[in-house]
Specification:
Layout: H1 2-22, E1 64-67, E2 72-76, E3 81-89, E4 127-130, H2 141-146, E5 153-156, H3 158-161, H4 164-177, E6 180-189, E7 193-194, E8 200-201, E9 203-204, E10 209-210, E11 214-223, H5 228-231, E12 237-244, H6 260-267, H7 277-283
């Protein structure tokens, strides 16, 4: 009987640990001390799926799952930037905390990996472009500060970053203030962007940081509520954009609307994998027209 009870306890412990991991609670000790206090710690920022099957294994250095308290990403060691960054956004994330502007290296990258510094993009003609926006994390100083880790940045053409990309970010927040919540994922592909210097640039920091040709974003919007996966339907609103990482880009984000299927074709990723096949197949083909 004692052996049976011990066996039951071991099985229960394994299941409990797996459950805690799937909920993405902040139990990982490999987390920046600046970002341990998350406002929505029971939210799974990759609730809709892990599009590249990123893992915590450092051997998987081109698709390394890098978790912060307020977003989660797939990181590429060779590119020196994230492949994608994913986060959940709701009204509770939007508060009064000011923009911290404390750009800094992410000291929690594995030992021996190149670590972008706050000045790694200096004089390059490219902005330190946020993937998870600063203004999406204003509930606390800690939340806002978390977005200034350099692993959340990409070399982004200034007129892209400050133009249609920023407009889409603000439009998304207006949807949240109107009573919705959103699951968002953004990323890059390609190599060779055109910044403010007007010439094509492939890398920064002596070849350690890739400059992408394109940036993309997927935003799935649903009314605020509970049991989110069950509430996502084939008619749920989804916005997908693909924008060239060029300083000659136009100013209207709507001009760059595409669909998830095109982003999958350009990246090789599998988005919305947590949804049923019927719902996913409907959503990935939709092009937003609102």
């Amino acid at each position: 009987m004692l052996k049976l009870n011990i066996f039951k306890f071991v099985i229960f412990s394994v299941l409990l640990n797996a459950s805690n991991l799937s909920c993405k609670k902040n139990n990982d000790t490999n987390v920046d001390n600046d970002t341990k206090n998350q406002s929505n710690d029971v939210v799974n920022h990759i609730l809709l799926g892990n599009p590249s099957n990123a893992t915590y294994d450092i051997v998987n250095s081109e698709n390394y799952l890098l978790e912060q308290s307020y977003f989660i990403s797939s990181y590429s060691r060779n590119k020196g930037i994230a492949n994608w960054v994913s986060w959940h956004l709701e009204q509770a994330d939007l508060g009064e905390a000011k923009r911290q502007d404390d750009f800094r290296a992410n000291i929690n990258l594995p030992n021996g990996w190149f670590t972008a510094q706050s000045n790694s993009y200096q004089n390059s003609g490219f902005d330190r472009g946020h993937m998870c926006p600063s203004a999406d994390r204003t509930s606390t100083v800690e939340a806002n500060s978390s977005t200034f880790l350099m692993t959340n940045m990409i070399p982004q053409a200034p007129r892209n970053n400050q133009g249609p990309w920023a407009q889409l970010e603000e439009y998304t927040r207006t949807q949240i203030r109107a009573g919705n919540e959103a699951y968002i994922i953004s990323g890059t592909y390609g190599s060779g962007g055109i910044g403010s210097q007007g010439t094509i640039t492939f890398t920064l920091a002596a070849g350690k940081i890739n400059v992408p040709t394109h940036v993309w974003k997927i935003i799935l919007i649903i009314p605020h509520g509970d049991n989110d996966l069950a509430r996502i339907k084939s008619d749920s609103r989804i916005i997908a954009v693909i924008m060239p990482n060029e300083n000659t880009i136009g100013s209207n984000w709507r001009d760059y609307r595409s669909n998830v299927k095109n982003i999958e074709a350009n990246t090789g990723y599998n988005f919305l994998s947590a949804l049923s096949a019927d719902i996913k197949n409907s959503l990935v083909q939709k092009i937003d027209n609102l």
